[in-house]
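User: Hello, can you help with two protein structures?

Assistant: Certainly.
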Amino acid sequence: MSIIVDDKVYFIERQKNGAYWLDASFSLSDLGGTVPGFGDRYALAIHKSGTAIAEVVGRYFLRHIDEAAGLEWYVWFIVVQQIVLQEQHDLFRIFSTVYKEDIRGNPVKQKLAAKNESEERGFEYWEEQDREREKHAPIHGLDAREERVLRFMIAHPDCLTADTIPEAGEKTLEMLAKVGVVRPGAKASRGMREWSVTDEGRAEVKRIDTYRHWKF
C-alpha cells in the first residue's frame, strides 16, 4: 500500500450555528513546518480597518485508508472558530502598519503574493472582493474605546448620561457628537447632559461589523 503524507494543513471553520466549512489550506513549508495548536490564532487582515480573528479549537491528524486504490493518506486538519476581541481594532492598526511597510512597499513580496493568489482563486476575484468590501468601510475613524461606548449606548438606550456609560466621559461623548454618531439632549434632573445615538451611529456600527467580518 502506497503512503501519502500530505504537505498541506487544512483549516475548517466552525460557525456559530454549529456548521463547519473548509476555510483555507496552507502548505507545511509555508507554515515553517509547524502545525498550529490549541489557542493559536490567525487573523483575516485585508487592507484598511477591521479584521476577523479565528482561534484553533481542534487539531486532527487524519489517517485515511483506501484499500481499493491501495493508498494510505496522512494529513493535518485544524478546526478554528471566529472570536471577537476588545483589542481587535487596535491590533489591526499594527497589522496594517506592517503590511504597508513590509509588503506593499516590497515589490518582490507583492509579486509573489499576487502570483499565489491568482493560482488559487484568480487575482481578479480578490480585487473585486476588496472593492466590494471597501463600499462598507467605516467612515468616522472611531478608536476601540469610542466604538465600545457607541455599542454600549445602542445596547442600553436607557443609559443617557456619561456616568451610566462605561468608559465614557463628557469629552468622549462630545467627540462622538462631533462626528454625528450621537447627539446631545437636555440636562437630566441631576444636572448632567443626556446623550442619544443617531441613525448615523447605528449605520457606522453596521459598517464596522460588515467590514470587519467580510467573507472573501
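That covers the first. Now for the second protein you mentioned:
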Amino acid sequence: MDSWRSYGHYVAGRGIRVVETDRCLPTRSRVVRLLPGGIVERGPALTDPVCPKPLVLADGSILVLDAGVLRAVDRRLADTVLAELLPVGPDRTWLYRGALRRTGDRLTVTLEEQHEDRPGRHVLHTWTLALRPGPAAV
C-alpha cells in the first residue's frame, strides 16, 4: 500500500496530481504528481497557501487560481501563466478567496477581497474569459 505526504485538491486522471494546501506563510504549496512507491514529484511552486478547487480541461491540463494569477499546469507539471487578473502579494493572500467556474466555452473567475480593517466588508472581482481549443488556451 502506497502513501504520500501531500494534502490539497486531488485531480485524478492518468495519474494523480494535487494542488497542495499547507495554510502556512510563507507557503510551501506546489502542484505535485503522486507516483508509485510514495514518491511525490514536485511541480510549480504556488504563492497562495489555499488555492481554490482547480478546473480540469479536456487535454488534462488543470487551471489553478493562485493568488489572483490564473495558471495552467499540464500533465507533465509544466506551468504557464495565462492571466495576471489581480496579483496578490504572498503576505496578503489571507484577505482573498477565489473560485473557478466553467460554463461551456466560458470560464468565470471570482476573487472575493475582504476589507482589511472591516471584516464584514468585501469586494467581489469577477472576470469572464473565453476558453479556446488547444493546450490550456484562454
